[in-house]
Amino acid sequence: MNNYPLGILFFLFGLDIIQIEQAPVVLTIIGVLIIIHGIGTWVAGYFPMDADPYTKTPSLECQIHSWAGMLMLLSLLIAPLLSTFSSYFSIEFRLFSTACLLASIYFTVTLKKAYEEKTNPGLHQRLSYGAQLIWLTGLSFNLITS
Fold first, then answer.
1. Separation of alpha carbons 53 and 69, rounded Å
2. Tens place of pLDDT for every residue, the chain, 146 residues?
3. Contact 10/38 with Cβ under 8 angstroms?
4. Which residues touch 52 (CB under 8 Å, ≥6 apart)?
5. What CA–CA distance (Å, rounded) separates 94 from 87?
6. How far apart are CA 127 and CA 95, in angstroms?
7. d(CA 59, CA 64)
8. Residue 112 CB coordination number (10 Å)
9. CA dist 139 to 78, 81, 113, Å?
């Protein structure tokens, strides 16, 4: 249920970014990636995961949910990566973006390991996503102050 309002917020934030006058192309691309993230959030919310994530033959709904999740992950990995290399942003924000990106990648790797070991993959997924949300928060503050 919470995916729908979150998706709307991501969509509106991305839309707001792409409407910034005289914004560089990199900022427009980041805005589009945030919109894609919002759409992925809606799709992942509409199509549920299977109750058992280790099932040998996942349902079509679970497969769609998983692809939407992959789209969400990639959109918010590419966006901070772009900001890391863009001279539009301050060196401080570029370093912040790098740290958030590395944290998200690290927790994605630990997620894979936790999934394979059948321990607690949900924790690692939330930590990876948390790093991405921290980056989005930093981006919003960066845009407000610039």
1. 14
2. 689 999 999 999 999 999 999 999 999 999 999 999 999 999 999 999 998 888 899 999 999 999 999 999 999 999 999 999 999 999 999 999 999 999 999 999 999 999 999 999 999 999 999 999 999 999 999 999 98
3. yes
4. none
5. 9
6. 19
7. 9
8. 12
9. 14, 12, 30
Is there a contact between 2 and 55 (Cβ–Cβ < 8 Å)?
no
Calpha distance 77→70 (Å, rounded): 10
Tokens of 83: 């900001």
Place of tokens 């991405």: 132
Helices 60-84, 121-145: axis angle to 10 degrees equals 40
| Token digits of residue 118 | 């059948």
